[in-house]
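Reviewer comment 2.1 asked that we show a complete input and output for one of the modelled complexes. We chose the 4'-deoxy-4'-aminopyridoxal-5'-phosphate case, as it is the one discussed in the main text.
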Amino acid sequence: MMSKRTYLDYNATAPLRPQARAAMIAALDQVGNPSSVHHEGRRARAIVETAREQVARLVNCRPLEVVFTSGATEANAWVCGAGGWSTILLPGTEHDSVLGPAAATGARVHPIAVSPGGIVDLDAIEVQSRLAAERGGRTLLALQIANNETGVVQPIAAAAAIARAHGHFCHTDAVQGAGRLPIDFASSTVSSLSLSSHKLGGPSGVGALVVRDGARLANLISGGGQERRRRGGTENVIGIAGFGAAAEIAATQVSRMKQMADVRDRLEAALLAVTPDAVVVGRDTARLANTTCVARPGLAAETLVIKLDLAGIAVSAGAACSSGKVAASHVLTAMGLPTDVANGAIRLSIGWDTSDADIATLLKAWTEIARPRVMLAVA
Ligand code: PMP
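Response of the prediction step:
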């Protein structure tokens, strides 16, 4: 029998919330295509529209601005691919699902510098936005709300205001910020925002692109005209039901983040007390309450991840999506961190179901790993 595991990898995927499970089980038995006009179809449509309202409330947008997708990867790729961009401005700390599609567009991709703490340089955005406006064509500024590896929070309102002042389109990957930071799409000048259900405690394989009503973005998939013609294909009713329920409960828990930050700060202080040479990335920067990116110089991240896994604890080295690839994290490299920190950093990310016992288990294992091995000579 497998002993109890300690799951500290919420930024990779969060455990399913009971509310999301219940909503999906109810939706499983609802026969009907949401586009059908009969009773069954209307019931399925009601599930989708209820979820749309729940997701809209999480980020304060209008329900008609929510377009359900297969996840945030699809939403990010959509924005990069469908704007006809001449210039794309983005920092190197963006997620691969933005960097890859941006590079594939053929647009001039201009990297924006970040500080050693990971914060984007607003002056550089201003300069590059002006130059892009002078060159003409359409410009996209892509800036995530918070980073999946470090938790560093970007000044998205200020960046979006600069983009707007120059007539540019600002997209934000809100995957890691949603449910952890208050997000007010309506009063921002952000043009689009991507969300992922499984980071909120919903199922994976579903997410959304929130597109401001009237923003210029080509439709993603033509077909049966679903999602107001923007993304054809019969809706993933069960997944969407789970996403909506997770979004609803996550929205009520944003206010708990102060307590979570206290837990994180105590955890980091305890880790540093055991291993004073450890480096907490972005410690002096605005960060998500749930994320600690920590390196023990001289110890490879993969080694730490495996040792913790053997102790029953799940954490990540770099981004989970790129696991298997031993290269240093592109996020930490873009921040200009020394190679031993970039190669040694692991990510601990807590969430809605993390207990004090989980934190204690981690500290115990960390202390064990730090203890120097003494070889005993047997006579
Ligand atoms: N952006 C960020 C910041 C992420 O952390 C992730 C998930 N690793 C994604 C996008 C992709 O989301 P999804 O898994 O829904 O495709």
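The chain has a mean pLDDT of 94. We note this here for comparison with the apo prediction described in Section 3.2.
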